[in-house]
Amino acid sequence: MKKNVKKWAVLALAISLFACSDDDNNSNNQQTIAELAQGNANLSILVDALERADLVTTLNGSTEYTVFAPTNAAFTAFLQANGFANIDAVPVPVLKEVLLNHVIAGEETAAELSTGYVKTLAKGSASATNTLSMYINTASGVVINGGTSNGGATVTSADVQASNGVVHVVDGVIGLPTIVNHAKANPNFSILVQALTRNDQPDFAGILSGTAGAPFTVFAPTNTAFGDLLTELNVPGLSAIPQATLEKTLKYHVVAGSNVLAASLTNGMMVDTFAGDSFTINLTGGAKITDQAGRISTITATDVQASNGVVHVIDKVLLPSL
């Protein structure tokens, strides 16, 4: 009988210790995202910003979010770069959208994040319905919108669990991305970026980063699409394409003054471009484009929203009348 009592006592102690350990490991889960931020001295400017933008209640609720939380150093760099004396100097509407650009719906741990586009809760001025896109690259850690050199950030401390989601601490304030930011962030657009910034071209990077003529709709060819074009034209590289040809070709991929979402495309629709030429949309068997040369390109990804326009990814470079 004494042996049985002893066994039960040992078992009860083991259960008690396991329960205590489990409670310790999940103690953060009893705090909301907002409460976690409030308890971290290195996120004090973020807390001030959330209070100023009236977003504390949102991050204190039961809806699950993933929040990329900039450190005080990140906010200090952001304020200095934009000429603000402190967080109170940032206009509330601007501050709110910037903060919402750090939040995505649902809980995504670092292991669950994958390379590609996700939607944030922020809205730029280009679209009344489509929220801003965020490009996440998980090839080496978790890099957002190309890192701090491109207005993005890198996760420095991942998977801080909360009762209503997860927090990833980042080293930069993630700005509202322009079309150019999105192009630079995605390695699959590196040749497009080279073309847009070739020194004999107009200031395409400046134009597509700004608001004059915005919003823009850009049909963006991938690196593979540019490689196929070089083969098709029988030229050794991008530098071999004549200046005028490249300029008109790049302009042919841009629609100025309109944020055209995929839902707005119709079968047989003629799209007028910045180059002056048009192309035709064909929705039979998936969204495709027929260019001036009768060549067909497939739209492989749609509605990548920027603050000054929208990007649709295509698998063939479009050719205007040359």
From TrEMBL:
Protein name in the entry: Fasciclin
UniProt GO cellular component terms: extracellular space
Signal sequence extent: 1-21
Start and end residues of each FAS1 domain: 30-174, 176-318
A Pfam cross-reference name: Fasciclin
Top-level division of the source organism's lineage: Bacteria
Entry keyword set: Signal
Chloroplast recorded as keyword: no
PANTHER family: FI19380P1, PERIOSTIN-RELATED
The keyword Nucleotidyltransferase appears for this protein: no
